[in-house]
Amino acid sequence: MIEMGGIKINSMLNNRTDVSDDLVSSSLSHLVTTGNNIGAAHIHIEPREKYIIVRYRVGNELVLGSKLPVNVYPKILSHLKQKSGLDINESNRVQEGKILLDNNSDHAIGLNISPVIGGEKIILSLSSVNHNIASLKNLGYWGDNLYLLNKCSQAERGLILISSNDKLGNLLTLKTIANNLYFRGLSVASLGSDIEASLPKSIQIKTIDGNSNNRIADENKMKMLLRKNPDIVFISNPGGSKILSSILVQSNKRLICVGMVSDGALGILNKLLKISNYHELKNLSVITSQKTLKKLCINCRESFTPTKLEIEKLTQYFNFLSIEKLNDLEKMAIEDSIGSDLHELSSSKETINRLYRSNIHGCEDCQYTGYIGKVNITEVIESDRDDLGKLMTIEKNTLNEIRNYLNKQGNISMELDGLLKCLRGMTDFRDINNLMKVNRV
Ligand SMILES: [Zn+2]
Predict the structure, then answer these.
(1) Model pTM?
(2) How many whole angstroms from 367 Cα to the centroid of ligand 1?
(3) What is the whole-number distance in angstroms between the Cα of residue 360 and the centre of ligand 1?
(4) What domains lie within the chain, and their CATH numbers?
């Protein structure tokens, strides 16, 4: 179900030992992301005769991850020892330290290296400190959006709506929020078969016959669940507007997080504006949307100077934003380690100097695809402002009018997040362009 560390130093490179530091580092980040996403406490990396095995400690279980070619092991070991200040030449005693991986710069990972037959064994400890922030970051949230989502998920009440173009994306985000709440000792309940299966320890309502269609969260089950008085309820795929409306009402007493498959936050907001009154809408904390795109291979990605026409099109599409403001946002993105491997800014106060796209031939590192891994582009619409009242008074409540209003308020739309991640060398400009075409009005 969850991709287990489908990591780049896999397969193709069996006869290579000259793996770059960047590649080792991004691959380790990927293992940590996977570990965080599945709620692992530790990651075990052990050399065997023919390959390295990666296992995740989740609860009492060791879940098998990917196998890596054994010849990259010395590189992984020396990389970890070097970055954590341990003795590179020592291999006969246990060494312990802490390491900051690039994509998790606010998140120190515990490191234990101990001698075993045939080499040294590595254990990475994913500490619970900053767990939520680091993992939400790995899911593509940063800056104000990250702050907002995190703040709302720490609140005692309110409604968080997570919308994503795919079910797995929703589930990962819900689960990331839930894992953090377990650490705080709160009682967590779940409703809807997807999230119920992902949170087996949560309070759930079991159907008596066991085979009724419980894929969709229904209203009766929600009532039964609320009688158990949980602190937080996670709901996947609520069916219809009626349940959405009662979820909204119930979220004045507790925190409710809902995952929905949808094309975007705006559509959901528009629906909520139609089915609820101002008083009920006050319970809504945030609506997020996320979309998964392919991530550019940093080894072979191409930068290019956008043409006059391309810049014109961009400034037209993002007409609520000056280039200077875009430049400020890029600086903020760097501060939050978005594309931190690029040392230069791609924008200036006057213009966009560089955009990125994939190399159509690819390279050995990315198995000639031009991409390695995935990157989420995200949007968070906060409703804890006076906006709702104003939005409700907008004449027709059309998506465009709501969009215009939010843009003027400084909301970072998914397209803008995508463009910023393109400036930082993560997303392919072709993908951003396509997204803009779809949403162009
Ligand atoms: Zn490549």
Answers:
(1) 0.69
(2) 7
(3) 9
(4) 11-125 (3.30.450.90), 131-293+378-396 (3.40.50.300)
